């Protein structure tokens, strides 16, 4: 009797299990077949090890940037707040190279001063210079290494401003045409960013991303003008903010701004053309005229010297 009861329970268990498998196959069988076919055609991606994921990150992000951040926390107490704010503004104007803040750039300046001073001192020692000369070269390398990051930032600022001043009139023309064709201001900015390349296109995309994240348009425009620090762009952003506030037609404002930008660029080109002869005067005086004088007056001077020698 007991064996019969166990047999019945076993049969019920197997029957329920079989029914469950059949039901699962009927419900999800088609999906399983599609997934298997996709794996056969496409191939299932193999899991990537954690070490490979870590090594795929650039060395700068894995080691250099964290080291600079750690050193910056130690050197924070030695940086005046006014100097830090001034350096942070310069970093923003330069386009935030390396994604480093002011404290980390100060660490770069310290490392540059120590490293260049040590390099000059080592080079003088290997060249067989005397100890005073080694010390002098090392002392010369310290301020030079300290100033090199500032020179790099200033160079980037000048280049960015020059590129913005050159590309802004063309961007405004395309923006004006897009707005007059029926696009909204945000759509016209996106069209300009798609059709052009450079700093202005990147800044327009960043401004639109900020607007999509909830920042008001006027604040996004002010931030863009602050990042680039170009007078013409600041005037353009101020005009757009004023037109948006007062309800003026943006197309008319863009057309007026475009004409003004073109006139300013024409005036600046004429100014550079008028300065060119004055700038050419210095190389002519110091390099061309001496050679001409030697060619023209050289034979006469030799004949005079021979006449007086006789």
UniProtKB/TrEMBL annotation:
Segments forming domain Type II secretion system protein GspF: 172-297
Membrane topology note: Multi-pass membrane protein
TM annotation in the entry: 6-28, 106-124, 130-153, 281-302
Any one Pfam family match given in the protein's UniProt record, by short name: T2SSF
The entry's keywords: Cell membrane, Membrane, Transmembrane, Transmembrane helix
Keyword match DNA repair: no
Record localization: Cell membrane
The organism's place on the tree of life at top rank: Bacteria
InterPro entries to which the protein is assigned, alphabetical: T2SS_GspF_dom (IPR018076)
Transmembrane helix recorded as keyword: yes
Entry GO CC: plasma membrane
PANTHER family: INTEGRAL MEMBRANE PROTEIN-RELATED, PILUS ASSEMBLE PROTEIN
Record-given protein name: Type II secretion system protein
Source organism of this protein record: Desulforamulus reducens (strain ATCC BAA-1160 / DSM 100696 / MI-1) (Desulfotomaculum reducens)
């Amino acid at each position: 009797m007991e064996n019969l009861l166990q047999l019945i329970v076993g049969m019920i268990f197997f029957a329920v299990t079989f029914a469950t498998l059949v039901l699962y196959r009927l419900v999800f069988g088609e999906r399983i077949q599609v997934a298997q076919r996709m794996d056969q055609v496409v191939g299932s991606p193999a899991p990537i090890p954690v070490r490979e994921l870590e090594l795929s990150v650039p060395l700068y992000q894995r080691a250099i940037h964290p080291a600079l951040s750690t050193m910056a926390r130690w050197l924070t107490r030695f940086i005046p707040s006014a100097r830090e704010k001034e350096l942070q503004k310069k970093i923003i104007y330069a386009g935030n190279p390396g994604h480093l803040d002011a404290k980390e750039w100060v660490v770069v300046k310290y490392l540059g001063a120590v490293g260049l001073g040590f390099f000059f001192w080592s080079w003088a020692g290997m060249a067989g210079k005397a100890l005073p000369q080694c010390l002098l070269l090392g002392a010369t390398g310290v301020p030079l290494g300290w100033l090199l990051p500032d020179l790099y930032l200033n160079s980037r600022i000048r280049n960015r401003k020059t590129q913005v001043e050159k590309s802004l009139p063309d961007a405004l023309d395309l923006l004006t045409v897009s707005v007059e064709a029926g696009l909204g201001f945000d759509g016209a900015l996106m069209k300009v960013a798609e059709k052009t390349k450079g700093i202005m296109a990147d800044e327009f995309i960043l401004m639109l991303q900020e607007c999509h994240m909830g920042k008001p348009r006027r604040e996004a425009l002010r931030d863009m003008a602050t990042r680039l620090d170009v007078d013409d762009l600041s005037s353009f952003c101020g005009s757009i903010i004023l037109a948006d506030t007062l309800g003026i037609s943006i197309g008319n404002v863009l057309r007026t701004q475009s004409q003004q930008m073109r006139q300013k660029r024409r005036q600046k080109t004429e100014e550079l053309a008028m300065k060119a002869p004055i700038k050419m005067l210095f190389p002519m005086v110091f390099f061309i005229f001496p050679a001409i004088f030697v060619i023209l007056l050289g034979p006469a001077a030799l004949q005079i010297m021979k006449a007086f020698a006789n």
